[in-house]
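hi! just following up on the protien thing from before. the input was this:
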Amino acid sequence: MEVTFLSASLSLFFLLTISIFTYLLSKKINFPYTVLLIIVWLLLIPLSKIEVFSFINHFELTPDVLFYVFLPILIFESAYNMNYRQVIKNWKSISSLAIIGLIISTFVIGGLMYFIFPLLGFQIPFLVCLLFWSLISATDPVAVLSIFKNIWAPRRLTLIFEWESLFNDWTSLALFLVILGIVLNGEMSVSTYIEGFGSFISMMIGGILFWSFTWILFSKIIWKIKNNEMAEISLTMILAHLTFILSEIISHNINILWFDIKISWVIATSIAWIIIWNYGRYKISPKVEAHMNQFWEFFAFLCNSLVFILMWLILSHINVNFWMFIIPILATIVIVIIARAISIYVPIGFLNAFKLEEHIPASWQHLLSWGSLRWALALMMVLMIPWIWDTNYDKILIFQQSIGWKFDFDIREFLIVITIWSIMFTLFIKATTIGYMMKKLWTTQLHDLEKFEQQEWKILAYLKMLEKLDSLYQKKYLTISEVNNLKKKYEKELKNSVEILKNFIKTQWKDNWKSLIQRALSLHALWIEKQYLKDLFSYNEIEEKNFKYILNKINRQIERLELGKPQLKDIADEKISLDFFQKLVEFFSNEKNNFIDNYVINRTKAIITRKVIKELKMLSEINFGFEKEMFDEIIDLYKKFNLIANEKKDTIFNEHKTEISVVEGKLADKSLLKLEENVINDLYCKEIITPKLYITFMDEIEKEILKDIKSI
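and the predicted 3d structure came back as:
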């Protein structure tokens, strides 16, 4: 069948359909999705040889498609939703794995391949060994984290793995491009290596600096188009690709004093999103933020699936005798395993020995070593090496002649084969065994606080269900017999959860059960604070700078409790240092803190603490299997917070009655406008008003809601 745009489109959507059904099947049979895709590939290759299905190969995975379409999405998504403050706490372990571990991996993989391969009949130049090392060092956090998420991996382990993988991707991709540049340049003198090292440093620094432009631009634009769902989501997609493409344009076209400016687009794209998600995420409308994660997960799923299937179709077209590669492939797999193990155990062993950071258990080290899956990024890098029809392929031939390459296959084909089979090993063996390994190492067990919270939330859920049953009966959705049967079921489950909670407290926390319950209730109260704070921000009753100030305090308290420290009793008066991103908010705000800011902050604290008191009193009426008095201590603490906030608010009001009265009027207007918006939405859903009237009403309401509080 002739390759046309129509047949290529058919191939694309056929492969997407296959990917979706494969994913659904993997969920149904509880089998790793990536491994199942390999099985699908084994079926697609013979199928594509049949004339009717020959269109399967018509959609090609070209370097340009990989580079400019898929790669920005995968990089952007991998850096999505990363909390930088958690990274700061674990920066020693993350940086040692990403830097020291990478250096160790370099010498082990490059050195062993260079000395062992000649014994196997493959005289491979050291530069080619380094090229393979740089691309195979790129681990895929998405693949492992999806496994971690399903089997409740410890949060700190997940964090270390995620950031170590991300930093590895940055450095390995930058090094790969530098080494590939040396190969294409054809000169392997000392000056070439010095120039390559300079390019690497330039790429790293340039990538870090370039994000400043992107996040400022994004933050300014996103605030102007606030509450426009389609525009905001589209802007993140544009930002991912624009950062990537502009970095590439600058790298190829700008030089200063005869020195080419290089910017690592992988670093620029990753850091841009990390900064934006920590600094600019609250500029994104709350209703948009709810869909943002799903949006990026969806596109990453599509990209990963297509890359994965097309990767194996590419392998089927390479004219190489795979039997002659069996021993080198096995040797490569063993070398990579050894290098990964050494690069994990040595740096972490050093950190643990000198107690430079919180102890990392041996079981975690085993998982970090075994969980280094390779996937899309490694494949993308090897496909960047020029091939027969590429303009730079002649440079590859010149390089091969200069090093005396005597094989029938070229360097690209050699690296593709060993890379893909290394990927296949990680997916067939590592991906299928890491879950079992985690369970055997007891890393999936819930800690005591999580066990308590698990039963607490079960009790709340069962109570909600019992309450809902009465409502369903009153609306005639269920008969009395159905309601009674369901009530018996949920009352039994409720009683069982209460008993489990009681036994847990008596058996495992005989001496310190009160401290455990206090921590759990304090966390519950802080999450209530956070929820109502976000509600006030969505109602535009508090601006971003003040919102982040209060949120920062709440997050600090949550982190203290999760680390086993007690909740601060004087949080209302606590003077905490601003974090990096809050300083950015302060710096770019038009006005510094004044009496209006202080009034709004204390007004907000008064509202959210009052809400916490109300909800805790309601919870105290529920039988959780421990004394009601346990709630009283937390309630009294929040009464104190509420009193302090109200006193400060009243003091500011008395000193600036005229100005604050205007502020209160504006805030009341915004609350009423939000209520009006909810009423209009309800009328539209019930089809009482027409779409035209709905749009007209909503436009008018949004114009009023989005008026800046500072304009008063």
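The CA atoms of residues 145 and 158 lie 7 Å apart.
DSSP finds 26 helices and two strands in the chain.
cheers
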